[in-house]
């Protein structure tokens, strides 16, 4: 199949290169000329394990190309995927669909022959209807079918998620479009990945409902963690006990400083706004959004308490800046609110992240960025682990303690056992593991 991917950001680039790796001919289009120049030169604008190698392979094999020209490739395409950003709109929290609609107008002017236009971007229910209306208005004779095909990619594991998905959701009732989408995803039939065909609006809602439920699950276990600290219980054992119930499942039951990233914050907010607009408020998700926002700042207060209650003029080391490991994405990262809270309390912050420093630098003025965890810990009254990068799971605790002014370790991801840390002379604070535990 001849595929055009409009938008060469996270979703567009990962989806495009994986389609190319399936054997399709893929052209990734982006208006950002500097991004296209970089991609043509083999420089990947995002960090995702395995992505650079996969892009290089498919470019070399002639299945993947990059351009700023939309019209030419779209005119030859069997399917055109819209994979542009849908950030929260400033002022009201609704999804900003201006990039989606602008792409639809350009597609309308460029299509030739039957073409399937696919909303890959995460969009509110009814967006596909508007995309179709725009195309009909711009080009009444265009032979197109608009369908929804939401993505379910986890940053840090996006390639494996794309190639071994839990499910593939396609929203269309048009048989011609169904045939094209079946052919595009045919290589995944070998992995028996289920294709779920629905109407377009249902597919759009599946994406929002999935993200909202996962965000709610994270927020639930975080509130359980707070209760564990009051009761002297262990949230990790609670999570294990309830996660063993296959009606609940163990995933997304890891207590921490709150969710962030490019999807959950904006998608939960967009779903809340959509529900309010249709007089069907989703109170659980409204509360999830509010609790998660408050939690990030509360983690700064937790660090201050662990360091004795007064950090004015003192140094705090923060390990991990990105919202999760194996990505350089700083969007809505808990570290942003946590560091701001520490700065507001008068601290000097030294930080280290394996991949996110360049993205974090313009967002965190006044922070000293370091080359490794031990440099960050120099002279610190406390070290806080905010993102669970693998290299933080095996820190040389003796070396870390030697670099610090005071031996306080705040583990916001529960990656250490309290006994191990306290044995090295640290005062140790973690999440939801009870006030009765050693050093907590």
pLDDT averaged over residues: 95
- % residues in beta strands: 5-15%
Radius of gyration: 24 Å
* Oligomeric nature of the chains: single chain
How many β-strand runs? 14
Number of helices: 17
Large-scale geometry:
globular
Helix/strand class = alpha/beta
Order of strands across the main sheet: 3-2-1-4-5-6
Distance between the termini: 58 Å
Question: Main β-sheet: number of strands, strand sense, barrel status?
Answer: 6 strands, parallel
Share of helical residues: 40-55%
- In terms of per-residue confidence, which ranges show pLDDT below 50 for 5 or more consecutive residues? 436-440
Summarize the structure.
It contains 17 helices and 14 strands. It is α/β, with parallel strands linked by helices and 440 residues long.
Word description of this protein:
The structure is a single chain. By secondary structure, the protein is an alpha/beta fold. Helices cover 42% and strands 14% of the residues. The chain is built from 17 helices and 14 strands. It has helices spanning 10-21, 33-40, 51-60, 71-75, 98-110, 127-138, 158-163, 175-184, 200-231, 235-243, 264-277, 283-306, 334-344, 357-360, 373-376, 397-403, 418-422, and strands spanning 2-6, 25-29, 64-67, 79-82, 115-119, 144-148, 168-171, 195-198, 315-319, 348-352, 368-369, 380-385, 408-411, 427-429. The protein has a 6-stranded parallel β-sheet, sandwiched between helices. A 6-stranded parallel β-sheet has the order 11-10-9-12-13-14. It has a two-stranded parallel sheet with strand order 7-8. Helix 8 (175-184) links the parallel strand 7 and strand 8. Helix 5 packs parallel to helix 6 (127-138), helix 9 packs across helix 11 (264-277) and helix 9 runs parallel beside helix 12. The radius of gyration is 24 Å and the shape is globular. The model is unreliable at 436-440 (pLDDT under 50).
